[in-house]
Specification:
By secondary structure, the chain is an all-alpha fold. It contains 8 helices and no strands.
Length: 195
């Protein structure tokens, strides 16, 4: 446990950068959505068309789709960080913009309480796990950059450490988040539906 906490602490500056990018992208997404409400509504409709089929599945399969989607994307964000950390930054920025556009459009129709109820129950677990995965990827990218510059680094050890943490901590918590998103979030959010 202490080893995991020490590793997490060693990632703090990378997680801070990733979190900063995420917050900035949330702001950009909200501003863009407010200035182009028609465009953002079209985007939300496009997302519904792309992912609407998930709602037709039984709850257990919905949970698995959500889990594997988040787990695979987080893993790619971690692994592809080796390319100087560019992919994790783009991944987080893209997710921030998409999330804020969806939040803006839905909150106009259902209110901010509904949006909070639809995101917070699982989001308080899922979002940090995604950001930590991207933070590990950013660190891998930094280590790769240092090794190219001729500084002594151990990229294999960094990758191994990142993957172990991902499997031990991130994957189980993403599974918990997927269960909450499937079975608990809809019940809480339904209380705030304004019709």
């Amino acid at each position: 446990m202490q080893k995991d906490l020490d590793y997490l602490y060693s990632l703090r500056k990378y997680i801070l950068v990733i979190t900063g990018i995420f917050i900035l992208s949330l702001i950009v997404g909200v501003v863009a959505s407010q200035e182009n409400p028609g465009l953002s509504e079209n985007y939300l409709e496009m997302l519904n068309n792309s992912y609407g089929w998930i709602k037709e599945l039984n709850p257990f399969l919905i949970m698995l789709v959500i889990f594997f989607n988040n787990a695979i994307k987080s893993l790619f964000s971690l692994l592809l960080g080796i390319g100087f950390g560019i992919i994790p930054l783009l991944f987080v920025a893209g997710n921030g913009v998409v999330l804020s556009v969806v939040v803006d459009v839905v909150s106009r129709k259902q209110g901010i309480l509904f949006v909070a109820a639809a995101i917070l129950p699982h989001g308080i677990i899922e979002i940090p796990m995604v950001l930590i995965s991207a933070g590990i990827g950013l660190r891998l990218g930094h280590v790769m950059y240092l090794s190219i510059r001729g500084l002594k680094t151990d990229i294999k050890q960094e990758l191994k450490q990142g993957l172990i943490f991902y499997m031990k901590k991130i994957v189980p918590l993403l599974f918990v988040a997927a269960m909450i998103e499937t079975f608990i979030t809809p019940l809480i959010a339904s209380v705030f539906i304004t019709s």
